[in-house]
Amino acid sequence: MSGREHIIEVKDMVKKYGSFIANDHLSFHVERGEIFGFLGANGAGKTTAMRILCGLSYPTSGEIQVAGHDVYRERERIKKKIGYMSQKFSLYEDLTVSENIHLFAGIYGLRRKQIGIREEQLLERLGLGHIRNRLIREIPLGWKQKLAFSVAIFHQPAVVFLDEPTGGVDPITRRQFWEMIHDATEEGITVFVTTHYMDEAEYCDRVSIMVEGRIDALDTPAALKQQYGSENMNEVFLKLARS
Amino acid sequence: MSLIIDHIDLSFGTVQALKQVDFEVQDGELFGLIGPDGAGKSTLFRIMASLIIPDAGRCLMHGLDVVEDYREVRKIIGYMPGRFSLYMDLSVEENLAFYARVFGTTVQENYELVRDVYEQIAPFKKRLAGKLSGGMKQKLALSCALIHRPEVLILDEPTTGVDAVSRREFWEMLKKIQKEGITILVSTPYMDEAELCDRVGLIQKGSLLKITDPSKHTDNVETQLFSLKSERGLYAYLERVRSLEGCKHAWLFGDQLHVTLRSKGDRTKVKAEIENWGDPTLEWKKIIPSIEDRFMGLIEQESGEQPGNEGRSQ
Fold first, then answer.
1. Which H or E run includes A161?
2. Disulfide engineering: A22 pairs with which of A48, B6, B222, B244, CB 3.0-4.6 Å?
3. 8-state DSSP, B66
4. CATH tag, B3-212
5. Is the pTM above the cut of 0.90?
6. Taking CB atoms and an 8 Å limit, are B162 and A42 in contact across chains?
7. pLDDT, tens digit, 9 for 90 and up, residues B54-70
8. Which CATH class, in words, describes the domain spanning A6-242?
9. Contact B210, B201 (CB under 8 A)
């Protein structure tokens, strides 16, 4: 995996709120096309870091580039090259499936004709053509999440940020979702994902674990398990976050 | 018997939220209700907490009917709803004192019961509840649900969105509360938590699929479940395994694939084909299904009966 282009490059990133240090000199990179798991306990600083990488807040200091753009000076460019999805916010409940696709694609500047073609492909792939005119609030959560992910990568972003994307869905839908994530990486999309399901950490190429504002571990799941003498990622996480 | 749920039906408009749900919970039991969002877990708990009335069927809490005797029921239960139940503009200690007073008791009287939980947030007792972190809110909500020493504790998804460390701590607290003789009903979308319950009910689309004891692993049914591991990655093998003739379904499962075969007769053939792939790091072995495997099996059975239900489902 070494030698691939760094789609996210973070050097010495610090974010302070008054005297509180939310991100304490983070340094890491994410390679093009990988699934990068961003783990940590509640309050460890994940959301803060993710907001900076998405161009939603400024760091206090550090050198940070996302998709080749600087997070201080080129935030609008970054926003065009990324996708975002979380369990809490994804699609507009009072718009239909089709309206949501057109709204998000329009925001990202896709042309109407292009949107039409890709919409057909998307609905066909998900098998959701029959519900294109249904309101989002009327469709099952599992479909909603798959659709939200597809909408987040509809404009073929360089990186997609997924903030706890699989909360609350059944175990089969959760796995189908991860297969979709993997398919997206085959198309060259980089995936930056947070989760509280430790089995999902195993599906990532590399995983970082944040503890109190720092990244205390970063490697492939296999290497982390070996390093911490653990059977699974849950044990690795507990050892790090509890110490 | 702590709780009797007797053939409960409930619809919201045209949506059947609960269909003939029927089970019992013993005194002092830690009972888990496992299922995805929208399965009906919260609705069922709200019926138990006397907050909504079922269309049909009965729910008895320590022999008291939750509809007829709702006043008495409310005195013996502690209910922690899924959505945050505290008063954001009251401090930590004010919230606890408020709940104690509502139930006609004092914090002092039952402090021993909540001590373990409450001491973890006591350093912040002057802080407004709205300013607490997720993990601390959850501990305060649990303290408030316990402060009148209920006989039955009903916890609706207390650990959703909570990290793995806090989740483990929360379950350690539940085990201690159970030792005090309190019956606990808890719902969760996390399958690993199911293993910590005495018994679990698996619920999907308003129907209780099954009640099982997590320690009894096979339910006396011969399963054809195997795990496949490889150092060369899992995604690469997923489609390959699914295309094998004897494969019923295959899913990612942590650092391995879990593969269910169609019949016992397929074992030898599948094993031979996999060995033919020439990956010396491949490990193929028969395994005992976990709760999550069993739940997935039940979901697949259901969706098999109603084809086309879940998009790409196998």
1. strand A159-163
2. A48
3. T
4. 3.40.50.300
5. no
6. yes
7. 999 999 999 999 999 99
8. alpha beta
9. yes
